[in-house]
Amino acid sequence: MQLRKMMLVLTALGAMSGLMAGCGDDSTSPGACTSNDECGESEICHPTAQVCVQTCNSGSDCPSTAKTCAPLGGTSTTSICQCSTDVLCNGGTDSESTGLVCSDLDNVCVTACTSNAECTGDRTCNVSTGQCEEGDTQPTSCSGEGRSTCAHGQICSSGTCSAPPAPTCQNYTAFPNKADLGTTGPIIYKVETVGAATDSFCDPSVPKRLRVRVSAYSSTPFPARSQDLSDFFYVVTTGGRSNATVSSSSGNYTVSGANNDQAQIIVSLCVAASSTTNSAGFYFKDGNFACHQSNYQ
Q1: How many CB atoms are closer than 10 A to CB 140?
Q2: I need a surface site. Which of 7, 105, 193, 275 has the fewest CB within 10 A?
């Protein structure tokens, strides 16, 4: 009898944990977020749904509410647990919960909307289905460079709004922290080689100073001083990362824009005296990964 009671308790606890798993921390309230820092260790903040979602390598890593492991999409190669039905989002056929829907746009469990204010970006609420649907689309044409009139996460390229180039360099391939990337942080839209020369800035063992200019935009102001710049990283070909080195000397860090949302940052890399080429990766936390190949004398 005691064994039977214990089995009933364990079964009940298992059912409760199944209901609590899923999108965010529980099936009735997906974890809202604006950055990866607000999510769990194995989660990321979905860039458009703005809820914490589980990362995965296979479907076995996913809860019963969102059983499909598939790439997030866009410029990210991170795979996340994706849902397929509203019923599963709410805990299955035995659950009485109806507060969640499987987003038609993002394939993740979200709280059913009741007004446009509950939808992200320019999406609008279909109150009959609880789905946030595409509203007015962002302009596809633009002028200049950087964000211009494009949506955050896009760049103006040849007069058209598009995603930044997908990274293909060895630096990115070997990079183990791809979950740190996204489309909500500062977006790098251009990387240029400034020049290379022997410089006392560098150690005699690697005496040549390679200077690379990184141009980026942000939804929040960049700090006024390079010393206060944070979460900006340089990635080597083996995938290792370090804080990007920016000299405090005049001309190495320039902030502009009405809200200080543009930055031109010259990163200093110390390389061997015989070096004539360098492969580098750069990114801001929750932003895109930019590859750059420098050729110099």
Answers
A1: 12
A2: 7
